Amino acid sequence: MLLEKIHNSGIVGAGGAGFPTAKKLKAKAEYLIINAAECEPLLKTDHYVMKHFAEKCIQAITEVGKTVEAEQIVIVTKEHYKEEIASLTKAIAKFSAPIQLHTMGNFYPAGDEQIMVFEVTGRTVPPGGIPLQVGCVVSNITTMLNVYHALTEDQPLTEKLLTVTGAVNQPTMLSVPIGTPFATCLELAGGTPLKQFIFLNGGPMMGKIGNHLNFSDQVVTKTTSGIIILEEREYLYKLHERQMIQIINQAKSSCIQCTLCTDLCPRYQIGHPLRPHQVMRHLSMTDVPADIDDDPVWKQAVLCCECGICEVIACPMSLSPRQVNIYVKQRLAEKGIKYVYDGAELVPQEMREYQKTPPKNILLKMGLEKYADIDLTELVSYETEEVFIPLKMHIGAPCQPIVQKGDHVEKGQLIATIEGDTLGAPIHASISGKIVAVGDQLIQIRKDVA
């Protein structure tokens, strides 16, 4: 019953790639691990949820724990989140919930699900595998809030909590309909004093980057966790504006094989056979993509979680092992070459505890430290006059529209579905109004004029 409600409500993971939640929770697991670590610096959405919606989250987590038949239910957060921990602790006590709190130090990427599994259980997820292979299911705290709404109110996922911060006049925590233009979100944060800017859809390390020229094309989706506005000449812009041919040529000519990218790689540290410096060295000796084959060194790149530590923190030559790994992964996928774990013993690195990356180092390197201590205490809820709802907001196949131009829809009404048991999640109208357009990529809804 719970899984059916979650599916019918269109819930996917609140951040990252947006894996359909009902599919993930269909499994049985020893551990249910709730990610409340707010992995990316500057984002405050999970903080807000823990402080203000702890009771709802605890009720949902308890029911999800029953569904996956978890022997242990663990909420994982950072030890310096004092207010959040107090709020969660109070809610756990109120409901006598069978839930533990596990606190971690302040390091990045603490919210990576495989790192979190290791922190809680000491188990290493097999390379190329998923947490379920070591008895764990991992879900996000804000996803649990969405589950609560589905479970108790039959409320589909139509609104999104997100952080708007950086070079804005009034950093803001927003609740807006899915499909709200980024430009509207920026207006709600008081706009920006910058005439030209770059923006991040997500956090500083793994967010997708753009600039003022394509900002108006962006809309809030089910996985939008934050919008960060930055000065155009920030370090981050320089990091991302290089063309792939430049990245490859620089890697071929400048990599000094110091191994720091490997030493600080979070996946290498938990025992995965991923050594970015070897991929970089291989690059210097071959013609990419013509010479990419099923060489074991190339296939290491598949294990990269794209956290960015290698290029932002580790490399003394300002190279981009992450971008190289992404490029190699794409070339391998084009040739149908997959990584297959050979069953070798996975041995965590002894120095791991001493080589974790503090978020403050990331912010200092990127020149973002001035935005670090912004406290978002109030939530601004806003219902826009028009939304542009993408038909693909999750892993899996795009949804298929079941409405036509000219139809009137009510908020929460089903407007797009997936076929059969295809991986995906249905989509609902996020405002009431008229269907203005139905295309291959989005559905446009505009409020009726009184």
Short structural summary:
With 450 residues, the chain is an alpha/beta fold. The chain contains 17 helices and 17 strands. InterPro entries: 4Fe4S_Fe-S-bd, 4Fe4S_Fe_S_CS, Helical_ferredxn, Ion_transpt_RnfC/RsxC, Nuo51_FMN-bd, Nuo51_FMN-bd_sf, PduS, RnfC_N.
Structural features:
alpha/beta, globular, four-stranded parallel sheet, 18% strand, 450 residues, six-stranded mixed sheet, Ubiquitin-like (UB roll), Rossmann fold
Describe this protein's structure.
With 450 residues, the chain is α/β, with parallel strands linked by helices. It has four domains: 2-153, Rossmann fold, CATH 3.40.50.11540; 158-234 and 368-384, Ubiquitin-like (UB roll) (Roll), CATH 3.10.20; 242-356, Fumarate Reductase Iron-sulfur Protein, Chain B, domain 2 (Orthogonal Bundle), CATH 1.10.1060; 385-450, RNA polymerase II/Efflux pump adaptor protein, barrel-sandwich hybrid domain (OB fold (Dihydrolipoamide Acetyltransferase, E2P)). It is 32% helix and 18% strand. It has helices at 2-8, 21-24, 45-52, 54-67, 82-94, 113-121, 141-153, 182-188, 235-241, 244-254, 260-263, 266-269, 276-284, 296-300, 309-314, 321-334, 359-366; strands at residues 31-35, 72-78, 99-104, 136-140, 159-166, 172-177, 197-201, 208-211, 226-231, 379-381, 386-390, 400-401, 408-409, 414-417, 427-428, 433-438, 442-446. The strands form four sheets. Strands 8-7-9-5-6-10 form a six-stranded mixed beta sheet, covered by helices on one side. The chain has a four-stranded parallel beta sheet with strand order 3-2-1-4, sandwiched between helices. A four-stranded antiparallel beta sheet has the order 11-17-16-13, with no helix packed on it. Strand 5 (159-166) and strand 6 (172-177) form a beta hairpin. The longest helix has 14 residues, at 54-67. The protein is globular and about 65 Å long. The two termini are 40 Å apart. The model has no long low-confidence stretch (mean pLDDT 94).
